[in-house]
Amino acid sequence: MTGLVCPRCRNQFASTTMIWRCPCGSLLDVSHAAMFPIEAIVQRPMTMWRYREALPLNNTALIVSLGEPMTPIIEVQLRNGLVRIKQEQLMPTGSFKDRGSAVMISHLRAIGITSVVEDSSGNAGASIAAYCANAGIECHIFVPEATSPSKLKQIQCMGARLVKIPGNRMDTAEAAWKMAERIYYASHYANPFFIHGIKTLAFEIWEQSGWDVPDAIVLPVGNGSLLLGVAQGFSDLLNAGSISRLPRLIAVQAAQCSPIYHAWNQLTDRSQIEHSRKTIAEGIAISQPLCQEKIIQVLRIFQGDCISVSDEEITDALRFCHRAGFYIEPTAAVSIAGITKLGNLDPYGRVVTVFSGHGLKSVESSNYSP
Ligand SMILES: *Cc1c(COP(=O)(O)O)cnc(C)c1O
Ligand SMILES: [Zn+2]
Fold first, then answer.
1. How far is the CA of 69 from the centre of ligand 2 (A)?
2. Nearest alpha-carbon partner for 108 in 49, 64, 66
3. CB contact set of 45 (below 8 Å; sequence gap of 6+)
4. How deeply is 343 buried, as exposed, middle or buried, from its count of CB atoms within 10 A (0-12, 13-18, 19+)?
5. Selection from 310, 299, 303 nearest residue 272 by Cα
6. Which of 72, 241, 287, 362 has a Cα at 20 to 30 A from 327?
7. What is the widest separation between alpha-carbon atoms in the chain?
8. What is the pTM for the complete model shown?
9. Ligand 1: distance of its center to the CA of 97 in Å?
């Protein structure tokens, strides 16, 4: 049986535990040694479950799945160079979050959880609501009042109990943590099973790069579920001896709300952080990410960097993607804006990024003048 372990004080917990933080305050991790038997993997269907020996689930015959495909990775010519973009908007609920939900909800159904709570700015909520609906688990999704109407609709249609919280994203998180004192906290950034689902994105990038590692991966960052998941995936591959080096990870934040950018670059103007302004990139508008320390640590290990982009640069990138035929949501254009900002891409080598969310999710917020 896989257990949970505190990375700070090494305290251990059963994987059925209801607590989501160690008494020492740290978030928990799953203890699990991932394996990658390539000969077996290549004979299985083209879904994230082909890497089952790398997932912390005891019985993958009992998984909760909505048919997660191995998403295509497409070469796109940007103004400053050629990049490969993984089409995560093609996941069942329209974002990469489905990888995390599928693994986390599979685990929760296996251990008999019947009710969960989650806080989200939209996509994680919609994804967890979908997998809970499929698994017959009751779910409470807390969202900031200002979330895109189509994301709210998506959450409600799947039968989740939607709780709109006035104020910012932090107020929403705190309201959910209160409820998490009595209901299982199925968090997309605090629950290690979720992060261990997101890591399949790294495995697919590895396979789609000819079982090799790209030089740099550029990712939008808010709470860090995407970055931490991808980092977990490449760390697993390295620990298993399946790769011999790590890619660089480059995080991109919206300048309007950029605590990680400030921490990484040791900027002292905290007003920027404490009074985060509204941004078109609603999916990553997190002013106090719980995993900030871990994100900074990961950026160090992966020889990373963190840059920020203005709403104007995001809108430019969004327009560019739309005009190239990729209907993505504004938050998904953040990484493209970031890559554009890197300038000449030659020193970065082979660059990979993802389209993190589908445009149909937030039609109202894409109403720039096209
Ligand atoms: C969740 C999400 C991200 C990444 O946000 P994290 O909070 O860092 O995981 C990026 N883009 C979209 C569209 C998202 O839904
Ligand atoms: Zn601890």
1. 36
2. 64
3. none
4. exposed
5. 310
6. 287
7. 54
8. 0.96
9. 8
